[in-house]
Amino acid sequence: MGPSASTASAPLSNRQLKARMKQAEKKLEQCSHVNQTPFRSAERNFKSRTPPPDFSNVIYPSSQPVSEQLVPVQLTQDLRMLSPHFGTSDASWEQRSHQAYVLKELPGKSPTHDNEDRHTHVILLGLVIIPNPFTPTAQRRLIQHCLSDYPQSPNTSNLHTHYHIPPTGLWPLYEQEQNGTIPMDDPRHFVAKKHSNTDAEEEEEEETTQRTLAIPLKACDDTFKPDMQVTKPDPPAASTVPLLSATDLLRRLRWITLGYHYHWPTRTYHLNRRFPVPDVVTSLAKSVVCAIEQVGHDGVWKNTYSAAQYQPEAGVVNYYQYKDTLMGHVDRSELNMEAPLVSIR
């Protein structure tokens, strides 16, 4: 008899069961981790192998029926009418062109509201979720920008610290490698590494860096306050990075900065390194801010930020491989905490 369509997993041994029980107990212990914030607890849950992650509370805005934690609200503007970069309208889009949600916590779900009526819903103020407003063509065009255009100079990436990235980015080299115009024995096949300091120079530079980092390094801490005047030395190149081709380096691309460059060690911006935010990104962000103006829920909360005064000045493009994740976090590096943060995923 052939294998069935659904095969049950093998039973666990006593040793495996004990290991899973210990892991589960450790996840519940508040003092078992140095950083036991709600975000980090969620991260440890979703990355856990033993026991397997619990996805029962994961919310999918596009799923049907809609989760009871999502409260429908109406956008004040049609995004595709505000910016052509979302794509063209059609009958399907017109049915949901103003659709959005705010998120609520269900009674008994959150340990942070012990003094509140457990029979009332707590609206998470400030978060507006817009189900995918892009057409497939518009999505592909935006991905193309992120791979071929935005990594170009003057924008910088995590790779610039260690490699001499061409001003045109890695994409042209990648295309040449893929179509065979740069053979393996061609020196251009590999992207040159930057010179790294000697051990003595690295120790001296590390001491200098530690003296200049006068602020906490955890931007998610409640007490974090960005010190814009702190010295911001560029991280030194590492001597241990391998010599790689553009194809291999693309898989190691994690982020690029747009507009004001971001200094990751101090979690602050380089105010003296300001460059234009790409027109497409500006158009998308301003359209979202315009569409959520005056959006709220039942008098509990309303977004009163004026879209007319909004101007994108900085952004980060994150790149993900299959095993990469981005967990919840709080951006406290912004100089203007009133302006909306627009996240496109």
Automatic annotation (TrEMBL):
Give me the residues that bind Fe cation, please. Answer: H329, D331
The entry's cellular-component GO terms read: cytoplasm; nucleus
Provide the Alpha-ketoglutarate-dependent dioxygenase AlkB-like domain boundaries.
248-344
Under SUPFAM superfamilies, the record lists: Clavaminate synthase-like
- Which Pfam families does the annotation name? 2OG-FeII_Oxy_2 (PF13532)
What are the recorded GO MF terms, alphabetically?
dioxygenase activity; metal ion binding
Keywords recorded for this protein, A-Z: Dioxygenase, Iron, Metal-binding, Oxidoreductase
InterPro entries assigned: Alkb (IPR004574), AlkB-like (IPR027450), AlkB-like_sf (IPR037151)
Cofactor remark from the record: Binds 1 Fe(2+) ion per subunit.
Superkingdom assignment? Eukaryota
Query: So which cofactors does this thing need?
Result: Fe(2+)
The name on file for this protein is: Alpha-ketoglutarate-dependent dioxygenase AlkB-like domain-containing protein
Starting at the broadest rank, the lineage of the source organism is:
Eukaryota, Fungi, Fungi incertae sedis, Mucoromycota, Mucoromycotina
